Amino acid sequence: MSEQSDSQVVAQPGIHERTNDWNNVSAVIEWLNGIIWSSWLVYLCLGAGVYFTIRSRAVQIRKIKSIFTQMFRGKSSEDGVSSFQALSMSLAGRVGVGNIAGVATAIGFGGPGAVVWMWISALLGASTSYVESTLGQTYKEKDPKTGEYRGGPAFYLEKAYQFTRFGKFFKVYGFIFAAVTVLAMSFLLPGVQSRAIGGAVTNAWNLPTWVTALALVVIMAFIVIGGVKRIAHFASLAVPFMAIIYILAAIAVTFINADQIVPVIELIFKSAFGIDTSSEAAFGGIIGLAVQWGVQRGIYSNEAGQGTGPHAAAAAEVSHPTKQGLVQAGSVYIDTLFVCSATAFMILSTGMYRVLSPEGEIIGSGRGQLAEALETTPGEGWPQSGLDSMIPGIGGSFIAVSIFLFALTTIVAYYYMAETNLVYLLGKLKNPMYLTIGTRALQVLILIAVAIGVMNDNPSDAWALGDIGVGAMAWLNIVGILILQQPAFKLLRDFERQQKLGLDPEFDPQALGIKNATFWEERWAKMKAGEHVPQG
């Protein structure tokens, strides 16, 4: 008895030290997250969206027909994927845990009004997505080793001003973005997705987390080793299926609670703008948090301005960069206005939510006794409880499967973007062994991050790390495209001019004075020489 007591006394300080060490790490993560996601980033995201909307004459609204018709036009080639496959790859990255658990955290910390600010960030962000994705297409390159198209912010940051006096600065800028993206996509962000998978599977079926981790790692390994074409094929099959089924389930829940549709809409808008400070709409008292959490989770979900969309856009086979820029603008609508809204109505119409103050105190909750049994921390458990309240015994399993598919495709998209930026960093080195070793190391790193994420029982740290990755990329990319924006609007005017003439738009970089778009210069030269070039 005394030996046991002695061992406990000896062991106790070590336990406290490890706990304190982890608490210190968590404190540093939260501190860094607070700096990156200050009010300035919220202003930057919204301000850029407003500016690009005005500059483009609301392209995301005016060209809504072209946005949705172009999604299903064009075919893949030996080198590039179709517009629809590129859209699916983009949606694979956009439609993830942010659409389920992310919406719950936005409501939990920003109140129901955060949903309006997610919508606003999507509407404005669609114009930002057009600009960044069009630039991604414009300055894409053909990988000499694989023949696949690659592009993204690192590529256009370097190439747009390469032959000017600012060329060296933007080359360094592009290098920094690529390094940050590799870190974010391989380490900071996958843990959010895989942790949600682990939590949802445990909630639904009580499976050990190590089983979930092993299964996820095996599936991921098979997909990522197959390259871009396998990723595109997987995404084009999985993303539309899972999104449609999920939205249909949310619509079914909404119709079952049809009497709550009008009250929920009223609650959302009153909470967003602080119109009424009585009863449930007392959440309007935290309007600042509604804006912050709505924009933050909106960007985490739809990724407009983050710099992820241009990677998928660059992989598409099209005849004019604006075509894919419009398609990527539409992906923001699909992500936020459809999928995120489905989750929000599922949570709010069933009353399965609570709203927490910055100090963690409950300042409001949904209707009914069931909401009292909710776990305090917002996450995937809230929509699971909401759906389960309507369809007992099925809701938890359905959300678990949805999260598994959403998160899996998102992690796969993360790998593709990390690999693209690794190719940018190492692909031009004389010794190809560096890229081969780097690619294998990247694959191992993301698989380790996925496994650790599943086993992680602290969702706050997982979300904070993810927010750091998203925020750092958004800062670098939005500032970059505000500087480099001109080609995107030249291309928009050229696209509209050719459309008015009844032509299928083709891009001639020389005619528009867009320099260093080397892929398109070569393509135009082939066309003039009478050679066949793929159309899209």
Features of this protein?
membrane; 536 residues; disordered N terminus; symport; cell membrane; mainly alpha; 23 helices; Na/Ala_symport; Alanine/glycine:cation symporter family protein; two-stranded antiparallel ribbon
Task: Give a structural overview.
The chain has 23 helices and four strands. It is mainly α and 536 residues long. The strands form two sheets. It has a two-stranded antiparallel ribbon. Strands 3-4 form a two-stranded antiparallel ribbon. Strand 1 and strand 2 form a beta hairpin. Helix 10 packs antiparallel against helix 20 and helix 16 crosses helix 17. It is a multi-pass membrane protein. Keywords: Cell membrane, Membrane, Symport, Transmembrane, Transmembrane helix, Transport. This is Alanine/glycine:cation symporter family protein.
The SSE string, one letter per element, is HHHHHHHEEHHHHHHHHHEEHHHHHHH
**Helix percentage:** over 70%
Tally of DSSP helical segments: 23
Uncertain stretches of 5 or more adjacent residues: 1-15
Instruction: Return Rg in Å.
Output: 24 Å
Protein name: Alanine/glycine:cation symporter family protein
InterPro entries: Na/Ala_symport (IPR001463)
Membrane topology: Multi-pass membrane protein
Transmembrane segments: 35-54, 172-192, 204-225, 231-256, 332-353, 390-416, 437-456, 462-484
